Amino acid sequence: xxxxxxxxxxxxxxxxxxxxxxxxxxxxxxxxxxxxxxxxxxxxxxxxxxxxxxxxxxxxxxxxxxxxxxxxxxxxxxxxxxxxxxxxxxxxxxxxxxxxxxxxxxxxxxxxxxxxxxxxxxxxxxxxxxxxxxxxx
Length: 137
Description:
Layout: E1 3-5, H1 8-16, H2 20-35, E2 39-41, H3 44-57, H4 62-70, E3 78-79, H5 83-95, H6 100-111, E4 116-118, H7 122-126, E5 133-135
Parallel strand pairs: 1-2, 2-3, 4-5
Helix pairs in contact: 1-2, 1-3, 3-4, 4-5, 5-6
């Protein structure tokens, strides 16, 4: 079994099909991954980058962008560290006006019963009791 880390632009071509030639190459690559029982490792930072580009570069609505990205979680050949925390962060992102990167940090901290250290007051919106946040301001 081989494991690959895939850049966000590959997923963007797959989701958007804005470059049909590249999108087809991605679909073929994914078929090989499935057939060979290989894996794709998608780090949370890559998910945040995908979301950033879907929202800013391609002006995709937040809800639609989240749904697109959540399709990655269905496939058993895609491995996402902190998977449950990242899913929770994406669900919160649909409802809250907080950066996805902050939501990912907070949900990972919560999952591991540790604290995020930050100056960002947005964390107060998530954790009024400051159980998982240490604000330095």
